[in-house]
Amino acid sequence: MSALDPAALVAVSVLFGLLIGSFLNVVIHRLPIMMERDWRLQCAELAAQPAPTFEPLSLVSPRSRCPHCGRQVTALENIPILSYLLLQGRCKGCGKPIGLRYPLVEAVSGLLFGLAAWRFGPTLAAAGAMLLVAAMVALTCIDFDTQLLPDDLTLPLLWAGLLINLNGTFATLPNAVIGAAAGYLSLWLVYWLFKLATGKEGMGYGDFKLLAAIGAWLGWQLLPLVILLSSLVGAVVGIALIVLARHGRNVPIPFGPYLATAGVIALFWGEQINQLYLGLL
C-alpha cells in the first residue's frame, strides 16, 4: 500500500467513497425506520398490547426499492452517480423523480474519502478519517430528516475514536479521553444552563454524544474550534432560514449537522487553524 502512487491512492479512495456513499443512503433512509419500529415494539410491550408486525427490514435487506412504485432497483441502476445521470433522475418504472440527495451523498462521500487519502496517505489515519467522515455524513442527513442522532452511530463512533488513538493516531490517548469527557460535559452544561434560564430544551442528548465522539477522535485541544465553527455556521444558517425561508423561530433547527461539519473541518485543518489563530493572538 505504501508503494501505491499518491494519485492512484486518491482515485481508488474516491471510488471507494462513492460506493460507501451509496450504502450511507441506505443507512440514512432505513435506520430511523428501524429505530421507530423498535420504539413501537417496546411501547407495545410496556402497555401489554399485541406487538405490531412489520415487513423484515435491515441495512442489508431487502434490496432497495423505489419509494413511489415499490419497484426493485437493479444493480445497474444502483451505480453511484452514473445511474442517476443515465436515468435522468427518474425511476425507470414509474418515472417519478429520484431525490437529488442520493447522488449528493455519494459525491460528498467520494470527495471526502479522496481528501482523506490525499491528506494522510496510505496510513491508519486515512482509514480512520474515512470512517469518521462516513459517520458524519450519515449523522448529518439523519439529523436533518428526523432531528435525531442515533446512539447506534454516535456511541460506536466514540469508542472507535478512543481505540484508534491507542497509538496516538490523531491525539494521545489521555487527550482523547479528556476530549470525550469535555465534549459531552460542555454541551451538557450549556443544555442545563439554557433550560434553567428559559424552561426550554435548547438541544438534544445526541448532540452531547456527537461532540464527545469528536473529542475522542481529535482530542480536547480542537474542541473549542469545533464548538466555535459549529456555532457560527449554525447561527448563520438559522438566521438565513428565518429571514429567507420564513422558518419560524419556535421551530427547532438541528445542531448535529453543524457539529459534524465543524468536526470534519477540524479533522483535516484543525491544527493549522489553531496555529493561525494563536499566531494572530
Describe the structure.
By secondary structure, this protein is mainly α. It contains nine helices and no strands. It has helices spanning about 5-45, 80-85, 100-120, 125-145, 150-165, 175-200, 205-220, 225-245, 255-280. The longest helix is centred in the N-terminal third of the chain and has 41 residues, at about 5-45. The protein is globular and about 60 Å long. The termini are far apart. The mean pLDDT is about 90.
List the helices and strands and how they pair.
Blueprint: H1 6-46, H2 82-86, H3 101-120, H4 124-146, H5 151-164, H6 173-198, H7 205-218, H8 223-244, H9 256-280
Helix pairs in contact: 1-3, 1-4, 3-4, 4-5, 4-9, 5-6, 5-7, 6-7, 7-9, 8-9
Please report which band the strand proportion falls in: under 5%, 5-15%, 15-25%, 25-35%, 35-45% or over 45%: under 5%
Helix content: 55-70%
The overall strand count is 0
Mean pLDDT across every amino acid position: 90
User: What is the rounded distance between the termini?
Assistant: 41 Å
Q: What is the N-to-C succession of helices and strands?
A: HHHHHHHHH
Structural classification: mainly alpha
Main pleated-sheet profile: none
Gross morphology: globular
- Helix tally equals 9
The low-pLDDT segments are: none
Rg over CA atoms, rounded to whole Å, is 20 Å
Short summary of the structure?
The protein has 281 residues and is mostly helical. Helices cover 68% and strands 0% of the residues.
Short descriptors:
single chain; 281 residues; mainly alpha; globular
